[in-house]
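User: My instructor asked us to take a sequence, write out its structure as tokens, and then describe one feature of it. I'm not sure where to start. Here is the sequence I was given:
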Amino acid sequence: MDAEGVRIGITFGEHKSHVSAEAKQGTAAVPVKALVLNGADRPFYYNYKILLKYLRLVSESVTLDFDANGLLAIRAGATQYIQSPLRPPKESAEQSQKAA
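Assistant: Let's start with the prediction itself. The structure tokens for your sequence are:
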């Protein structure tokens, strides 16, 4: 997977979200403290370049709001950026065999 294929994955837990990224060099994941009111029961994936571009544009605290379909609203003061989720990554044949 090249840098263009890198996705940021976000899953929701109790009082935290898990943010992960996977590339051919490896995988990274980190829990982030969050106020999760109605977390989705599935992960959402976003283009990392767009997400980081939006986050670099703001210099104050940020609120991330997700709807049930994964539409992400990045809010900072009166400014709002919207990002649509990507399709989930396809499982490789190796991952499918391990799950079976």
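For the description part of your assignment, you could build on this observation: The mean pLDDT is 84. Try explaining in your own words what that tells you about the chain.
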